[in-house]
TrEMBL record:
Keywords: Copper, Electron transport, Membrane, Metal-binding, Translocase, Transmembrane, Transmembrane helix, Transport. It is a multi-pass membrane protein. Its EC number is 7.1.1.9. The keyword Glycoprotein does not apply. It is found in: Membrane. It holds the Pfam family COX2. Gene3D superfamilies: 1.10.287.90, Cupredoxins - blue copper proteins. The chain crosses the membrane at residues 41-62, 83-104. One of its GO terms (molecular function) is cytochrome-c oxidase activity. Residues 112-254 form the Cytochrome oxidase subunit II copper A binding domain. It comes from Mesorhizobium tamadayense. This is cytochrome-c oxidase. It catalyses: 4 Fe(II)-[cytochrome c] + O2 + 8 H(+)(in) = 4 Fe(III)-[cytochrome c] + 2 H2O + 4 H(+)(out).
């Protein structure tokens, strides 16, 4: 009797805690309310099944408790019960899967007017690349990643020269405009996740994954890695800022392109060449001024 009462209290306590819990989702900041709705449907289905199973257990514990003089009736199989459980289980699993399939279809169908953005993960920081004035991202290759070219942008691709490179700094996005996020990792498995956007995807070395979203409100949001990626995983945080159009354009105007970041190397080489030529010229001039030369 006591066990049956405990099982009933577990169900009641779980339902009350669910509705009164102080822990819930962060306020949504993207178009993916479909994902919230799908999770709520899953909560209701699994919650009803949980309550039904535990209450049935409580009923069985009470109904078939030991009593003097009663004997258990052995029943090896019950085809009617098996058919009933099979149908109910199939309906429940279908109800769990179908909403997710509709959401996934939307998740991978990128709007034609979406702007591409590249996110590059490495232990343990986030870097970003945005298209320049041509609106196209240049090609990249992990084999040419270096300290001078941390994102592996192919220098010979003209589309990549005006790409905006944001290395280990805040990402800014315009509000109300769809964004296709291209995801790359240059070392191990990572996962790009912004809780308020409800969108996340694994980043697999050697491949490019993607998803899309539309920011719906301005604000500052935390970027997290949702995949265990090594010792510094808990510290792999970033910041995404959703701006108004005016603020976003002002931020873009302050960023450097790949060509600008590559320019100092060329300037340094040219400067060293110039210094060498100048030194040679001074040596020649000094020799011409010596008495022997005169």
């Amino acid at each position: 009797m006591a066990i049956a009462l405990v099982l009933v209290l577990v169900v009641v306590g779980s339902v009350v805690f669910h509705f009164l819990s102080p822990w819930w989702w962060t306020p949504i900041a993207s178009n993916w309310d479909y994902i919230d709705n799908t999770i709520i449907i899953s909560f209701w289905i699994t919650g009803v099944v949980f309550a039904a199973v535990v209450l049935f257990m409580a009923y069985c514990v009470f109904r078939f408790r030991h009593r003097e003089g009663n004997r258990a009736a052995y029943e090896p199989e019950n085809q009617r019960l098996e058919r009933w459980l099979t149908v109910v289980t199939a309906v429940g699993v279908t109800a769990l899967l179908v909403p997710g399939l509709f959401v996934w279809s939307r998740f991978v169908t990128v709007p034609s007017d979406a702007t591409e953005l590249e996110v590059v993960a490495q232990q343990w920081q986030w870097s970003f690349r945005l298209p320049g004035k041509d609106g196209k991202l240049g090609t990249s290759d992990t084999r040419i990643v270096s300290a001078e070219n941390p994102l592996g942008i192919v220098p010979s691709d003209p589309n990549g020269q005006d790409d905006i490179v944001v290395e280990a700094a805040d990402l800014h996005l315009p509000v109300g405009k769809p964004v296709k996020v291209l995801l790359r990792s240059i070392d191990v498995l990572h996962d790009f996740y912004i809780p308020e956007f409800r969108a996340k995807m694994d980043m697999i070395p050697g491949s490019v994954t993607y998803f899309w979203f539309t920011p719906t409100r301005t604000g500052t949001f935390q970027v997290l890695c949702a995949e265990l990626c090594g010792q510094g995983h808990p510290l792999m945080h970033g910041v995404a800022v959703v701006d108004t159009e005016q603020d976003y354009l002002a931020w873009v105007g302050q960023q450097q392109t790949f060509a600008q970041l590559s320019a100092p190397q060329k300037t340094g080489s040219a400067a060293r060449s110039t210094e060498s030529t100048t030194a040679s010229g001074l040596d020649v001039a000094a020799k011409l001024e010596t008495p022997e030369a005169r």
